[in-house]
Amino acid sequence: MLNFDFYAPTRILFGKDTEREVGALLKPRAKKVLIHYGGGSIKRSGLYDTVTASLKSAGVAFVELGGVMPNPRLSLAHEGIDLCKRENVDFILAVGGGSVIDSAKAIAMGVYYDGDVWDFYEKGGSLERAVPVATILTIPAAGSESSGDTVITNEEKALKYGYGSPHLRPVFSIMNPELFFSLPKEQLAYGVADMMSHVFERYFTQTTHTDLTDGLCEATLKTLMKNALLAKENMTDYNAWSELGFAGTVAHNGLLGMGREQDWACHDIEHELSAIYDVPHGGGLAVVTPGWMQHVYQENINMFVQFAVNVMGVEGSFRDPDAIVQEGILRLREFFIKMGLPTTLSELGIGEDRLEEMAQKATKAAFGKESPLGGFKKLYWQDVLAIYELVK
Amino acid sequence: MLNFDFYAPTRILFGKDTEREVGALLKPRAKKVLIHYGGGSIKRSGLYDTVTASLKSAGVAFVELGGVMPNPRLSLAHEGIDLCKRENVDFILAVGGGSVIDSAKAIAMGVYYDGDVWDFYEKGGSLERAVPVATILTIPAAGSESSGDTVITNEEKALKYGYGSPHLRPVFSIMNPELFFSLPKEQLAYGVADMMSHVFERYFTQTTHTDLTDGLCEATLKTLMKNALLAKENMTDYNAWSELGFAGTVAHNGLLGMGREQDWACHDIEHELSAIYDVPHGGGLAVVTPGWMQHVYQENINMFVQFAVNVMGVEGSFRDPDAIVQEGILRLREFFIKMGLPTTLSELGIGEDRLEEMAQKATKAAFGKESPLGGFKKLYWQDVLAIYELVK
């Protein structure tokens, strides 16, 4: 096990009617709140009214900014930053899924920063201060409700980059599984692929002596797969959504990766797809992940035997580990198909013409200074291209 | 799954040499620190010197109070409260195991409280404010390094009561598994019994639809048992101690019990043993727990079949669930014996003369207002007596 520093201070309020408590929770923390949201589904569902009524009854002032799209855009974050400065906003409430929360974090970073907030995404560097953020989650997927991470798309440059800081951990996140009932089935499927990927990125490692986190990862993956199928059958299954929502938060608050070298190549490889083709992140991950597994598993076949046996329930002769791994990858792909997810680039509408360009952008080879991806196996642009080719 | 409110903000710094960072961590947080510790083993091991050197080099002033005993006593907490008031202490650093940390929390509660700090333990009530606490853990066991709980023995009244508040969650906890190398084997065994019990108290439930936390509990229990045996064979096995330390924190930071009705009867039943006979908490738990299982399992036999199969690895005919459960309880008892733990009251030196008195105190029947124990099955004093009788 490696040394680690675990800090996940986000308070999670979970269950029925918890969104009604938001005003009381904000009252001691905020003078003026920015309510940040997406395309208006929270207005149709009545959630917007519930939230604003709760704020009003607690006497918390607010302004609002909607319009966040999937793969949230830098331009809207700029707009939010200007609004917060103009209105002296001192707290941001993101009401939505990962895109809304990531956009809220981008705004939170920019308010006290003199330059362009994109600097953090492009150049890294340390964030000194940010406006505090809280969330009301409407889509279990990105795990942004309990992480310090944000991913933003710079639409002018067609770049999608991430940034992380402890200052971006939400103060609290409210999760009422009933809010997920009205999601379309694709959103369920994309969310599950994303949550599973958050576990995979931490699970597949060369670090040894990781019994506890191995077991926690495996339990989280099995919970996600079982309950994804239940929710797909009945989109108002409270218990299934509860498991998915809770597991999605555990998948990405950091715990499952503590003491392990993590991977994250699949996320980087997928980000190129959604930066250029604007495909859903979860859809891209469902395509990329089995290809990545196929390309890397021989680097440490025992890790993948463990995955196949402990997560995918493969049985058989351990004297043929390749067969066990292949069956594990096959079952994962079959699970994705059962969920209605794409498993090839062509299903995403992505042709072969820009694969090399994306591979070179993913490793930054395109920018003259290649930085290989992944902790499990170092991937150069030729590896990334090989993975795209495997799933085209 | 039940509604829940999860908040575990303690930062965990884990790994080799992390104790050297304590001065830098305290510098921005404290003007004057109370270093609180036990019987002097931290002086013999050199840890005291490392900690004080780190504080001095960071320019952090401190006073100290040693002398915490297992089953920490109210009288020492009173002494610490007086010292903190006199010296204007604004931060408490507990260097030790659960007893030291629990004693530190008692002091932290008392400094800003006008009455006797025992009031919180005896009468409950809401804690408004406490001195912040951080820890350097030397014994993985109680989980107090990441919990908001404290248990104190009122030696005059022979009462051992607990209290919990979010204000008592340590700000940070430092965990270097090398600090555990010098522990005696009994301490390893007692610690493992305590950590397992923290999971059991959350695991055994009548709440349904708890897939995620079921799996997390089972992974934590299996990690604890496997690595306890490894550490017992080699008391300087860094990886085994790493798993135990990390699992002990996960076992008690609250996560594993979220959304489930919890039990906690075994802890209450054990507390009576250590309040009167001053036996080690982990030793008492190893005795009480299998007896409790035997007494309650028919209340929901499927929960115990799941335990036997998923945790203790029992196989066999599911058409005879009783046999599966009995084999599970037997294997748990055998594990305790392998660890050198007691499994009967007589091994703890406890005779039969005060069993009824302890049973009546446990449920407060002795004080005229019985309050049955446990979430899995309500236990009255006759039940507690029956459990004591089963393991006498």
What would you note in describing this structure?
Two copies of one chain form a homodimer. Chain A is α/β, with parallel strands linked by helices. Chain A has 15 helices and nine strands. In chain A, strands 2-9-6-5-3-4 form a six-stranded parallel sheet, with helices on both faces. A two-stranded antiparallel sheet of chain A has the order 7-8. In chain A, a hairpin with a 4-residue loop joins strand 7 (149-154) and strand 8. In chain A, helix 7 runs parallel beside helix 11 (281-296) and helix 8 packs antiparallel against helix 9 (238-252). The first copy, chain A, is globular, with a radius of gyration of 20 Å. Chain A starts with a strand and ends with a helix. The model of chain A has no long low-confidence stretch (mean pLDDT 97). Chains A and B meet through strand 1, strand 2, helix 8 and helix 9 of A and strand 1, strand 2, helix 8 and helix 9 of B. Strand 2 of chain A pairs antiparallel with strand 1 of chain B.
Question: Quick recap of the structure?
Answer:
The structure is a homodimer of 392-residue chains. The first copy, chain A, has helices at residues 22-26, 41-44, 47-58, 74-87, 98-111, 118-123, 185-203, 211-233, 238-252, 265-277, 281-296, 301-311, 321-338, 355-362, 381-390; strands at residues 4-6, 11-14, 32-36, 61-65, 91-96, 133-137, 149-154, 159-164, 172-175.
